[in-house]
Amino acid sequence: MTLQQLRYIVMVAETGTITEAAGKLYISQPSLTNAIHELEKEMNITIFNRTNKGISVSKEGEEFLSYARQILDQAAILEDKYKGDNGGRKQYCISTQHYSFAVNAFVDLIKQFGQDEYDFSLRETQTYEIIEDVARLRSEIGILFINDFNEAVIRKILKSYELEFHELFTARPHVFISRKHPLAECSVIHNEQLEEYPYLSFEQGEHNSFYFSEEIFSETARKKNIRVRDRATLFNLLIGLNGYTVSSGIIDKKLNGKDIIAVPLADESDMHIGYITHRKGMLSRLGSTYLEAIRKYLK
Predict the structure, then answer these.
(1) How many domains does the chain divide into?
(2) What is the 3-state secondary structure (H, E, C) of the chain?
(3) For residue 230, what is the domain's CATH number?
(4) What is the pTM of this model?
(5) How many CB atoms within 10 Å of residue 175?
């Protein structure tokens, strides 16, 4: 087994086809196919299922790939440590719920480690995908929140995936509204005051459970609900429809706009915002730097 073979199977898993993977790896399709067959034979497993419709990762292949990604990540750490800035093209991925501090810290990370060549990814995505990204070692760090309502469910899933939650800070829930919203002058907002306004939230795809909601779930029924996929759409609708959402209260005017304000929300449990990591992984220098940058913005 070689690092090159591990890089091959990871690329095939990511692209989903031998043809595309071979192109990105700059090798012939027969060479790539042979390398995978040799690895499967050596390790006595089937990493990919082959059918007339193409290939897919097998169940045991998923587990093998998680270890392969970890080995490649550790190899990258060694190269970074001993080759210094000339260690080649850097790759890194973070998965997160929609938090401005996560974006700002990512900018700082690229400024420090980007150099001439890099391939960094910031996945502002659905809660369950964040957990899966870290579980499969596609991302080293995932950022999300837990509270009294979702904690039991989230921690159970994290445990099943061998993930750990590390708290960054505790936040009092805030209502994000337009500066021109009728409730903008309130020092504190109660749920009953929000009944007539549209509630905006990030949709969670096939895992669209209240437990995976990125926003605080309230027992108060909401008559008007709008779900979106991205930050810009949410804030545009928030302003245009006098809508609202509920989050940590941390606002960055460059990302969220100067027309958005945060007002404390009464009668809701605190949000414990933190990051998840894989128990089998060791935090890389990039990961440590990213977390340091986050803590800087949380001050």
Answers:
(1) 2
(2) CCHHHHHHHHHHHHHCCHHHHHHHHCCCHHHHHHHHHHHHHHHCCCCEEEECCEEEECHHHHHHHHHHHHHHHHHHHHHHHHHHHHCCCEEEEEEECCCHHHHHHHHHHHHHHCCCCEEEEEEECCHHHHHHHHHCCCCCEEEEEECCCCHHHHHHHHHHCCEEEEEEEEECCEEEEECCCCCCCCCCECHHHHCCCCEEEECCHHHCCHHHCCCCCCCCCCCCEEEECCHHHHHHHHHHCCCEEEECCCCCHHHHCCCEEEEEECCCCCEEEEEEEECCCCCCHHHHHHHHHHHHHHC
(3) 3.40.190.10
(4) 0.70
(5) 28
CA distances from 89 to 106, 114, 120, 205, 230 (A): 17, 9, 10, 33, 29
Paired residues of 271 in beta bridges: 171
pLDDT digits 0-9 by tens, 4-27: 899 898 888 888 888 888 888 888
pLDDT tens string 80-132: 667 655 445 567 899 999 998 999 999 999 988 877 778 899 999 999 999 99
Q: State which residues form the domain around 195.
A: 171-270
Q: What is the CATH number of the domain that holds 74?
A: 1.10.10.10
Quick one: which of 214, 203, 218 has its CA closest to 268? 218
Kindly give, in sequence order, each residue whose CB lies less than 8 Å from that of residue 33, ignoring residues fewer than 6 positions away. Answer: 18
Instruction: Give the type of residue at 216.
Output: I
Euclidean distance between the first and final Cα of the chain, in Å?
46
